[in-house]
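[audit] Reproducing an earlier prediction to check determinism. Same input, same settings, fresh worker. If the tokens differ from the archived copy the diff job will pick it up downstream; this log only records the rerun itself.
[audit] input (97 residues):
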Amino acid sequence: MNRHHRRFERQLDRMGRSLPGVGGPLRGLAAPGRFWIRLPVAILLILGGFLGFLPVLGFWMIPMGLILLAVDLPGLRPRVAALLVRGRALWRRFRRR
């Protein structure tokens, strides 16, 4: 396992601990052998995120879809891990205010 994969896995674990309602389903979808369900869910999340201005859908769906895609696309992992690190830092600053 290379360092980008380890960093991505670490960020998934941290996100699961900080968002318990999201961590379980995300870990279930990220489990090995679930590509057949992970890919359609990721694409639907990303497409639904572009409709985030609607009441039920939200822009939060785009990063969740990217996270699921990064499980299977190694080239996407470093960027998504960096996005998660920045997002967590931004969330910490927001909570302090």
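[audit] rerun output stored. Observation attached for the diff report: The radius of gyration is 13 Å.
[audit] end
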